[in-house]
Amino acid sequence: MKKNTPTILITAYAVNPYKGSEDGTGWNMIVEIAKHQPVVAITRANNQKDIEKYLSQHKISAADQLRFEYFDLPYWMRFWKKGGRGALLYFYLWQIGLVFFILHKKIQFNLAHHLNFHNDWTPSFLWLLGKPLVWGPIGHHPPIPKAYLLSDTQRSAYYMDRLKWIVKNCFWRLDPFLKITRWKAQKIITINSSVKKCLSFEDKKEIRLPAVAARRPADHHNPSSSNNKFNVLSIGRFVPLKGFDITIKSFAQFYHQQETFLKKQLHLTLIGKGPQKADLVKLVKTLKVEEAVVFIEWMPKSELQRYFQSSAVFLFPSHEGAGMVIPEALSFKLPILCFDNAGPGELMDETCGFKVPYSNPRESVQTFANHLNTLFHSPEKRNALSEAAGTYFEKHLTWERKGEIFTKAYQDILYTDQVELNRFKIELKKH
User: Fold this and answer.
1) Strands (E), 86-244
2) Which of 171, 302, 310, 382 is the most buried (most CB within 10 A)?
3) Tell me, what's the pLDDT at 424?
4) Is 292 helix (H, G, I), strand (E, B) or coil?
5) Among the residues of 201-348, which ranges form H helices?
6) Would you say 25 and 403 are in contact if contact means Cβ atoms under 8 Å apart?
7) How distant is the alpha carbon of residue 112 from its chain centre?
8) 139, 322 contact by CB (below 8 A)
9) 3-state secondary structure of 281
10) Where would I find the H helices in 185-259?
11) Residues 241-288: tens digit of each pLDDT
12) What global pTM score does this model have?
């Protein structure tokens, strides 16, 4: 590592170079940050095997500035954690133990960065170390609009969503450590506009930066723009949060509006897995579009490229506060159809797709179907949105861009602290 260059301590619960979502985000952000300054990254011990395997098989430019440390709580404190069950409680306890791990290892650093989980209702404890703190990116998931759950008689999903909302409110209002984290952090990196509204902190602390990004694909070519196929793509977990019922209903309405000879050109590909799959398959049959819809199991990220390349539109009416797949779709120049919300709706603008405002499920389905119809019958419009999608991606959603923004934030904090220290020394000499 470079001498006399500030070292950044990064804590990231989820880091894995072979995975997507939060794990992939953690890996990519750490690598980009390490291109600019020395980094000590601490993650869970169960990520060690994959990280070391990747580092042994791939040459990364940041390797000489990057050091990983691995920490987990003792077995007796985590035996009950199975899969996703209890993950957030374990994460909370892991962060407390992390402080003692850092002190025990005597890790030297100039600034601490709490990188993930990306939620705004669990605190960081890195402020206990007495160094400047960056918190985030953190996101905010508002409740799923009631009508979009009850319209499909998803009563259990509605009650579960509202129960989670009650739990989050307990943390926001009652957890003193969350309040201290908000107060102590010099910079709070927010994924969307709703975070600041919820946490209420000073404007000068905020850096608005989506957690998600993508690498530039080797080939931007989109075959669907040069043949008579119109492939609609949607990717994600099959859970109510992702709005796949809206996806299928919108496509079905659009599909049945077309002449018979045109229907052969239309396809909807749904890639993912989850507890809602059986209901979605049933919905496809009920709406009589099974000849045009295909379900594909979740696959490694590297294998998704051919589906992005062979698609014309990315349809993603998710209610979440993020949208990990949006940057990847934009990197392949796919026009986006999504809700105008604080999640996917803030990861693109009107130059590269259509954002549908919330109203009611029936009206939303009609609007999405109309946009699909427009893009199908207007290759010129589709091509214009495609080019704008690529431009937007290059400007806002590359990992390289995020590394630059993080670096500037670190420099601003450390420079300000040094100026304040020098001013304090001068005042001492005067007295």
Assistant:
1) 111-116, 133-138, 187-190, 206-208, 230-235
2) 382
3) 42
4) coil
5) 244-256, 260-263, 277-286, 305-309, 325-331
6) no
7) 21
8) yes
9) helix
10) 194-199, 244-256
11) 899 999 999 999 999 999 999 999 999 999 999 999 999 999 999 999
12) 0.82
